[in-house]
Amino acid sequence: MTDLMLEAWVAALIERTKLEWMLGRGRTWKPGERLKLFFAGYNGARNTGSDVRVEEILRQVRQVLGADRVQLTVAALNLNLTRGYFGDALQVRLPDLFPPFLYKEVRQHHGVIACEGSMFKSKFANAVTTMIIGALGMAAVENKLSIGYGAEAGYMDPSLARLCARYCRQSVVVTRNAESQAVLSGLGVGSELGTDTAWTFEAHPPEYGRKALVDAGWDGVTPVIIFCPINPFFWPVKASTLKWIAHGVTGAYKQSHYRGPYFHKAGPEVDASYQQYLDAFAQAAKAARQKYRMFPVLVACERLDAHACRSIAEGIGGAPVFTSEEHDMYQLVSILRAGHLMISSRYHGIVTSMPALVASAGVTMDERIRNLMQERGHDHLLMTVDDPTLGEKLVRTIGVLQREREMIADGIGRTVVRNIKTMARMGVFLERAVHERYPEFPIQAGVRSWEDYLPPLHPGLRRLVELYDSRAQAMTAN
Question: β-strand 238-239 against 262-263: which pairing, if any?
Answer without folding.
Answer: antiparallel
